[in-house]
Design a protein that fits this description.
mainly beta; five-stranded mixed β-sheet; 1 helix
Length: about 325
């Protein structure tokens, strides 16, 4: 009888000491989640504005009943949450207002239980505001009178915070010896990409300017270009010579006056050995090899005697070819 009483007493003492003297279920069973309806998740608004609907969470106890009087801490790196800490009401619901920051895209905020384990995440989509300016690309180029522009001109529509915005851009020549071959003006509704203009010299030298403007009285930007003396350039890209003057390849063919220099450019992402070698007669001395790890390393040859000169990539003679006609 004494042994039975002792075992029962130990069992009761052990039950009372379990869980560090805590009674009831562990705290971790308290849950937090967006309310089943009207929770404010996945809203879309313009940057730097408040979401029209509150963020709402529901806190439940271990029996799945609403838990009032529970502190909820709100956090985001994408704007501000007001208040930053709120307390659940009689229905176990806590709310806050989310004002987004200036960055477009997917934004996130979290709600966490201050004294318990548990959190939940809210998402919002921030879209760019109205067009405020144009981000220019290809401005200030200097192009030989007999060549193509190195890069198309581009104009990206951005809002006041620098986010890409949608829009339609028109291109025009203000002045100078240049013409627009084609202007691609429509930017996708998501604001990705930019409007571009394919431009070329008209045959004379001098300074020029082009204008890009957002349709409907929006912002505009001016591009300055300079058309300089003739030059004769060839690009070696993917083991193919391409004339910068006329875009010919396989072979690249250029006609130049006697005494002019031809400059070959190597694509900066090509790390193989390449040089320009003469084939047949008349001939010229094979160039040194292109340098490595530089933006468009170059080699050049000056042609003083009229004739038709054939050349190849001396390190890959079965690949790219070209012809220089010297007059």
């Amino acid at each position: 009888m004494r042994r039975t009483r002792l075992l029962v007493g130990l069992a009761v003492l052990g039950a009372g000491c379990s869980g560090d003297n805590q009674t009831g279920p562990p705290l971790s069973v308290v849950t937090i989640a967006p309310t089943p309806t009207d929770n404010g998740n996945f809203q879309t608004v313009i940057v730097k504005t408040a979401l029209p609907h509150l963020l709402r969470v529901l806190v439940l106890d271990f029996s799945h009943n609403p838990r009032p009087g529970t502190a909820v801490v709100w956090h985001t790196e994408a704007g501000a949450l007001t208040p930053a800490t709120s307390v659940t009401d009689a229905d176990g619901i806590a709310t806050t207002t989310w004002t987004l920051d200036s960055l477009a895209g997917d934004r996130q905020a979290t709600a966490a239980l201050q004294a318990f384990v548990g959190s939940t995440t809210f998402h919002a989509t921030a879209v760019a505001g109205p067009a405020a300016s144009l981000r220019k690309g290809g401005d200030g180029q200097v192009v030989p009178v007999n060549a193509r522009f190195s890069f198309d001109l581009s104009a990206a529509v951005i809002d006041q915070y620098g986010n890409s915005a949608a829009g339609q851009v028109t291109w025009s020549v203000d002045h100078g010896p240049i013409t627009i071959i084609e202007g691609v003006g429509v930017i996708p509704i998501d604001g990705s990409g930019a409007s571009t203009a394919h431009v070329r010299p008209t045959g004379t030298q001098g300074g020029g300017a082009l204008r890009a403007a957002v349709v409907g009285g929006g912002p505009s930007a001016t591009f300055a270009v300079t058309v300089g003396p003739p030059a004769f350039n060839v690009v070696l890209r993917n083991q193919v010579f391409i004339s910068r003057q006329n875009n010919s390849s396989r072979p690249a063919v250029d006609t130049i006056p006697a005494g002019q220099t031809v400059v070959w450019f190597l694509d900066p992402f090509d790390y193989d050995l390449h040089s320009v070698g003469s084939v047949g007669t008349p001939s010229f001395t094979t160039t040194a090899e292109f340098g490595f790890f530089s933006d468009f390393s170059t080699v050049s040859v000056t042609f003083g005697t009229p004739g038709t000169y054939h050349y190849v990539d001396a390190d890959n003679p079965q690949g790219s070819t070209g012809i220089i006609v010297v007059q």
